[in-house]
Amino acid sequence: MFRTWKVMRFCATADISARFYRHFSVCGNAQQKCFPPLFVPRGFRPAGAEMPEQSQPAPVTDVVKREFVECGAEDELLNNRKSIPNLKVSELLKAVPRSKLKRERTSWDELSESTTKPTHKKTPIEKDTLQMLQHRYQDTRESEERYDKQLKVRYTILQSNDDRHRDLMMLVGSRKYREREKQLVLEGRRLIMDGYAAGLRLEAIVTSDLKLLADLKFKHKKQSCPIFLVKRQIMMEWSSLTTSPGLIGIFAEPSNRAELASRNAAKSKRLPVTVVCDNIREPNNLGSIIRSCAAVSVQEVILLKGCAHPWDLKCLRGGAGAHFRVPIYGPMEAYQLPDHTRTGSIFVVADNKKPTDERNGFRWKHYDQIDYGSADHVVLVIGGETYGVSEDIRSFIHQLTQTGEEGGIQDRKFVAHIPLANGIESLNTASALSVVLYEMRRSLLQMEDNS
Question: Which PANTHER family is this protein grouped with (predicted)?
Fold first, then answer.
């Protein structure tokens, strides 16, 4: 309807006589019989079809020009379709200038749009993100070395176009790159100090504020390792935490981690306990488990396939330096488990999934009623919070204990149950392990005192 009104207005203002062969009126049927070629669908009109004679158009006035500019591409198609045989929309649109496809905006349109369209104010997070995107690959400045008189350290202001900037970014973001370069990344003042106290060699320090270096109290001077100063936005991008502590330490990976852990735990007496982790997928939970094992001073920690990687950044932070004080092996396959167990060991599975669970020959008991001193060594198996210890591990433990039971050693497989109240179904994996480990410690130390 709107397009028909435009055509009528065009005829009234131009004051010309034009013959229309297609009307939106009652006489459309009669004209269809008189002029059949015009009512053939577009694209199917024969090339040699005779067209009716058209009257010569009158001179176009200024008013007609103004109305023609206001007309869009669809109106131009309507005006030209009578004189073009085999009309195709795609071919005609190629010849239409782009300026005619948009109507010229008046001052009133600009005023109304400016008043109705709200202006978006960027939040601080959006501003930081925009700065991070802008400074990357656009900074043409070179890195500069400076000296701080107050801290008495020499540092380097690292720019994004420096090769060392790229290496540090790959080192922080890729675990495979760290394993290839044989380096460890520790984030935060406390974790850096724990790694340094454990005997790791510090190779570089990355910070976003030089004042944070005063909190690092090393025995030797900080000048022995390079110090890089980066922008706060880069540190936020590299950090694995929500709030970046502003300090990252790059350490050399020890050649023998088990020897390093044994040397750090030489003063504490180790319990004859091996902790086996089955399907612990959360890095924070695995870090807390390793921390509890180091606090109780177990013999070793074994990770089976399916667990999170022990040297993941989140796992390292959850361990709080415990990775350097207890031997960690794996992740490994289940068939490699006998290489780290001793003959005659008892196996304890910490699982609260089913009450009185005695599948595969396991005896169900409360965690404080198991005789942990009945064998020379204890193997404690703990699983994830969702699925617990898998059936494959239970079957494998059952096969390991078959030969020992024939020799007269009974009750080598137990399911440790932790009683809970208030309708709580289970504890966190690290919390349940801590409860069982400290009961083992109390029972074993009490047995040694009595003997």
Answer: RRNA METHYLTRANSFERASE 3, RRNA METHYLTRANSFERASE 3, MITOCHONDRIAL
SS3 229: strand
Q: How many domains does the chain have?
A: 2
**Residue 216: which of 188, 241, 254, 185 has the closest Cα?**
188
H helix intervals, 221-354: 232-238, 257-264, 283-296, 313-319
Own/partner long-range contacts of 73-76 (Cβ < 8 Å, ≥24 apart):
73/100, 73/101, 74/3, 75/3, 75/6, 76/100
Are residues 234 and 315 part of one domain?
no
Domain housing 320: 260-450
Q: How many residues would you count in the chain?
A: 451
Contact 254, 184 (CB under 8 A): no
Q: Are 191 and 255 contacting, i.e. CB atoms less than 8 angstroms apart?
A: no
Cβ atoms of 195 and 252 closer than 8 Å? no
DSSP state of 186: E
- Sequence-distant contacts of 217-226: CB under 8 A, at least 24 apart: 217/193, 222/151, 222/153, 223/152, 223/153, 223/154, 226/156
Query: Quick check: is 410 in a domain?
Result: yes
In a shared domain, residues 169 and 316: no
- Give dist(CA 160, CA 375) in Å, integer: 59
Per-residue pLDDT of 356-387, as tens digits, reads: 666 767 888 889 999 888 888 999 999 887 77
pTM higher than 0.70, yes or no? no
Sheet holding 273-278, edge to edge: 328-332, 300-304, 273-278, 378-383, 346-350, 413-417, 363-366
Say if residue 321 is exposed, middle or buried (CB neighbours under 10 Å; 0-12, 13-18, 19+): buried
pLDDT tens sequence across 186-214: 999 999 998 888 888 999 999 999 999 88
Contact between 440 and 372 (Cβ < 8 Å): yes
Geometric angle at alpha carbon 287, from 281 and 293, rounded to 5°:
115
